[in-house]
Design goal:
The structure is a single chain. By secondary structure, the protein is mainly alpha-helical. Helix content is about 50%, strand content about 5%. It contains 4 helices and 2 strands. A two-stranded antiparallel ribbon has the order 1-2. The protein is globular.
């Protein structure tokens, strides 16, 4: 399973969206303005090897993110 996760090319799609939205600083500004996540820091694009040590998310924000995904609220404009 670890090898499958390493082989997944999720960073290309994620980086494409970040680029489309104006870069990491712009996405961080959007996250700050929406006030959905209180302690999520997007400081760099995601490297191909998946090691993004500068990006951070709090346990509370990660829990909220999983809750929103599980309850199909992640694309809801009310969040």
């Amino acid at each position: 399973m670890r090898n499958k996760i390493k082989q997944a090319d999720n960073c290309f799609g994620t980086n494409s969206i970040i680029f489309f939205l104006g870069g990491t600083e712009k996405v961080q500004k959007i996250l700050y303005e929406t006030d959905v996540y209180k302690d999520l820091r997007l400081n760099q694009y995601f490297p191909v090897d998946g090691r993004s040590y500068l990006n951070k998310i709090s346990v509370a924000d990660l829990s909220q993110l999983f809750f929103n995904i599980w309850n199909e609220l992640i694309l809801n404009s009310n969040i």
